[in-house]
Write the structure tokens for this entry.
Amino acid sequence: MVRAGKMGHDMKLRPLGSSGIDVSPLGLGTVKIGRNQQVRYPQGFDIPDDARVSELLELALDLGINFIDTAPAYGSSEWRLGQLLPHARDWVIMTKVGEIFENGQSRFDFSARHTRQSVEHSLKQLRRDWVDVVLVHSDGNDMDIINNAEALETLERMKQEGLVRAFGMSTKTVEGGCWIVEHTDVVMATYNLENNTELPVIKLAQKLNKGVVVKKGLQSGHAASVEHAFRHVLMQPGVTSMIVGTISPDHMRANAEICKRVLAQTV
């Protein structure tokens, strides 16, 4: 159970579809604690030290955020979370398989062997016996991965083995997103003020009671009005949570405040 922090009671958890997992409507993206090469943000940044990461994670819990998004492709992010997460059992952790970031480049491997090794490695890094959510990190060819690769069936098997609680894909297409909604637990879709292309995926997920996690809700930090962006995403029926990456305590407080305000208007 998540501790009620200063604002924890205001950040009412939402069910992640029918997965049995409850997450905060605002999730914390952690690419910036592990990698600062080849990332699409308006400004460059330095990776924060352990003390700053610990402080940020404590603050997230105090604000009622219990949902963390990471990936092997986020450099040292998983390892640092394993070392530094306060009250480790209070968090819902979502990680990925399929994308490997090495020597400043991404490459992809959706084979059964790599998928299993990747999840087992994530468990070691995160110091966990299971991962709450594992998504296939699509390279853009959603239907090719779905039809011709073994990643999804491997995750399904690992779910049956108790190593993964819920699985799905971070998709790039409407067709792929809809297939994932129909056949798995969770889809991660792009949805923001400038891009409503994947709205059919969200609507189908609402109909079938599947989890929807939104990426790029603030357009990777380029949204002109953060409040409008939050309202657009979180008031859309079917959306469970929106992942926002930050290493700034002030940004996190402001985002949580906006999130709280927007959600108060939906009641």
Summary: Residues 1-9 have pLDDT under 50 and may be disordered.
